[in-house]
Give the backbone structure.
Amino acid sequence: MNKKYLTEIFTGIRPTGGLTVANYLGAVRPIVELQKKFTPLVFVADIHGLTDKEPKEVGQYVEGVVADYLALGLNPSKTNIYLQSAVAGEVSFLTLILSRLTTVSELLRVPTLKDKLKNKDNPEVANALLFFYPVLMAADILLNKAERVPVGEDQLAHLEITRRLAEKFNKKYGDIFPLPQTQEMKALRVLSLKGEGKMSKSIPAGAIFLTDDLKTIEKKIKSAETAFEGEMTPKLKSHILITKELATEKEDLKKVDDLIKEHEAGKAVLGEFKKVMSKVVIEFIDNFQKKRLEIVKDKDYVRSILEKGNKIAKENATKTINDVLKTMDFYR
Ligand code: TRP
C-alpha cells in the first residue's frame, strides 16, 4: 500500500456565476500563479453545489465557471480540471467511510456549519448535505491524495478536519493517506465600492462583476466612495489596491503613485485617480470578456478539457478506493 501523494496542488471551485474582481484577485489568480511551478488539479464542486441549489441550476453553471477560470488565465496544458460528479461513486463512498471516523457532535461543532445554522438555516430546515459538507470535502482531497490545498481563510477548519480524518483512518486501518497541507490564500482586502464590508455579490452596486459592461464599470467607479483630500480611508486603499493589482502598464502604476502622493498632500485629484482606475479595470475586464467569448465559441472545448481531467480524477479515485477497501479488509 502506498502513501505517496498523487497530486501536488489541489483545490475545488464552486459552481456559481457572478465572479467579481475580488474573486479573481483572491481565489483565481493564486492558482494561476501556482501553475507556473506546479501541475495543479482543480475540480468543479458540483456535488457540494447541491447543498443550496437544485441539480439543474448547478449543471447550468459548470461549463460557465470553467470558461471563467480559463479566460482568467488557467492554462489547460498546465492545470487539469475535472467535474466532481465524474467520480460521484468514489467520492460518495469515501464520504460515508470517513463519516464513521467522526461523530455527530464533532460535525455539529464545525464553525462553518454552526454559523450557517445560526444565521440562515436552522437544523429543522437545513438539509443534511450541509452537515456532511466538510466530510465530502475531505473525501475530495483524500481521494486525490493531495499534497497542498490552496484555500481561503473560510476553509481552514475544513482542512483541519480532513487531516484529522486521514490520521484516524491511517491509525485504525493502515497508513494509506498522506496528510494534506493547507496553503492559505491571503485574501486581499478588496472592499465594496460603496457601503459596508467586502466586495461581494450581495451588494451589486459596490461590486465589479466580470460580466459588467464597460459603461456600467465606469459608472460604478465614478460613484465609488473615496476620501476627503489628504485623508486615507480603507475604501480608497482598496481602490488603489484593485488598480495596482490589475494594471499591466508601468505608466499607470506610476500615475497612481503620483496622484496618491498629491492626494495625500491635500490636492483634489481623486477624480483623476478614478479615471486611471476605470481605464485599468476596463482593460482587464474587456480582455477577460474577449477571451471568454473565444473560449465558449467552440461548444466542445470546455467539455473536452473536463473529459481530460475526469480521466485523471477517475484514475486517482480508483487507486485510492482500492487502497481503502484492501486496507479496511472490506469484503467485496
Ligand atoms: N468548500 C470549498 C469552497 O467553498 C470548495 C471545495 C470543495 C474544496 N471541496 C474542496 C476546496 C476540496 C478545496 C479542496 O470554496
Remarks:
- The chain has two domains: 7-188+299-327, 204-293.
- Strands lie at 7-13, 41-44, 80-83, 146-151, 181-184.
- The mean pLDDT is 96.
- The first helix runs from residue 21 to 34.
